[in-house]
Amino acid sequence: MTAKLDYQWHLRQVMATRGMFSTTDLLQPLCERGIKLSSSQVYRLVVDRPERLSLKILMALLDILDCTMTDLVEPVPAAGQAKKTKVVGGEAGVGELRPRRARITRADG
C-alpha cells in the first residue's frame, strides 16, 4: 500500500527570512513577472495553504524569493496515517504454531 502524503506550506516563513513581512510586499514583484493578483488573493496565498496553485505563480514565487520548491513545500505523512509494517509469509512470530483446519467426521464411523 502506498503511503498517503500531505504537505506543509512555508511561504510566510520564507518571506520572513527575506525581510518581507507584509503580504502586499509580493504584489509588485508578481506584477513585474506578469502575474496580476488582488491583495486579498495574495493574502490567502501567504496565510492559507493553497489546494491548487498555478505553476506560473509557483515559478514566480521561487524567482522572487530566490528559493527552491523544497523551501516552500514540505511533504509530510497524511494525518492519521500510522506506519504499518508488512509481514511476509503470514503473522510475525507464529512460525510453525499455526492452527490446523478442523475436519468434521461422523461420530459413528
Topology (SSEs and partners):
Blueprint lengths: L4 E5 L1 H7 L9 H6 L6 H9 L7 H11 L3 H4 E5 L32
Antiparallel strand pairs: 1-2
Attribute tags:
alpha+beta, 2 strands, 109 residues, two-stranded antiparallel sheet
Written overview of the protein:
It is a single chain. Strands 1-2 form a two-stranded antiparallel ribbon. The protein is built from 5 helices and 2 strands. The chain is about 35% helix and about 10% strand. The mean pLDDT is about 85.
Regions with little confidence, pLDDT below 50 for 5+ residues: none
Q: What share of residues is helical?
A: 25-40%
What's the multimeric state?
A: single chain
In round numbers, the mean pLDDT is 85
Measured distance between first and last alpha carbons: 49 Å
Q: Over all CA atoms, what is the radius of gyration? A: 27 Å
Shape: rod-shaped
Order of helices and strands: EHHHHHE
Number of strands: 2
Q: Describe the biggest sheet?
A: 2 strands, antiparallel
Provide the structure class: alpha+beta
Beta-strand residue fraction: 5-15%
Total DSSP helices: 5
